[in-house]
Each structure stands twice: as structure tokens, then as C-alpha cells.
Write a structure and sequence with these properties.
The chain is α+β, with helices and mostly antiparallel strands. The protein is built from two helices and six strands.
């Protein structure tokens, strides 16, 4: 079963340097799960200053250039994992956030974990 993990935080983390210990620990984390065939893809995302939103409201499309100052939290990165159970996906997500807690103690954010649709949209 595939899951998407999003890391979310406020925009002000964009200008901060990521601690070297976290970068190293993330490399080991990704390497471990890649060898097991469980880490499919992942990446950090650039600042919302570089982004655009295409919005549909009242039947009209509009494009909004970043930064998205009205957003309280932004997706800062993602990972796709392929695991055997919800529990295993949650375990990986917790380990991912634990790396942040240990190697970047002042970081505040969250990781959202969601399974991919495998059947008809909306099905369980």
C-alpha cells in the first residue's frame, strides 16, 4: 500500500539553515527504506515565493503568485512510501518526525500521512 507523507510548517522556516545532523540523519533514513524498497520518492519543496496557485472559484479560474502569506502552514516536502500496513506507514512517519525533534529541536511542524486511492474514488 502506498502512502504520501507531507511535511508542513510555516513559511518562516524557508530562510533557516537545516542542521547538518538532520541532513545526515535523513540521508540514512531514506537510504535504509530505499534498500528495503519502501521509500519510493521524496523531496523538499522550494519557498512559496516560487509557487503559483490555480484556483477555481464561482466557476472561474485564477492564478495567484506566491508567496502565500494567508496560509498558516505550507507543504515543505513530501515522501511516498510503499508498505504492508497502516501501522508500518505510521511508524515511518513517526520516525521521520523524530529525526526532526532530535536534530532540529526548535522546529515546529507536522507530517500528514495519507493512503493513496486504490479503488473507486471515495471507496475505503
Amino acid at each position: 500500500m502506498r502512502y504520501m507523507m507531507f511535511i508542513k510548517h510555516t513559511e518562516d522556516y524557508r530562510g533557516k539553515e537545516i542542521p547538518a545532523g538532520l541532513i545526515e540523519a535523513m540521508g540514512e533514513f531514506i537510504g535504509e527504506y530505499s534498500k528495503q524498497g519502501k521509500f519510493i520518492d521524496g523531496a523538499g519543496l522550494k519557498s512559496s515565493h516560487k509557487g503559483k496557485k490555480v484556483q477555481l472559484r464561482n466557476g472561474q479560474l485564477s492564478v495567484v503568485d506566491g508567496p502565500f502569506t494567508e496560509s498558516k502552514e505550507l507543504v515543505g516536502g513530501y515522501a511516498i512510501v510503499d508498505v504492508d500496513s497502516d501501522e508500518e506507514a505510521l511508524d515511518i512517519c513517526r520516525k521521520f518526525m523524530e529525526l526532526h525533534r532530535v536534530h532540529w529541536p526548535e522546529f515546529e511542524g507536522e507530517s500528514e500521512l495519507r493512503p493513496f486511492e486504490t479503488g473507486a474514488p471515495g471507496s475505503e
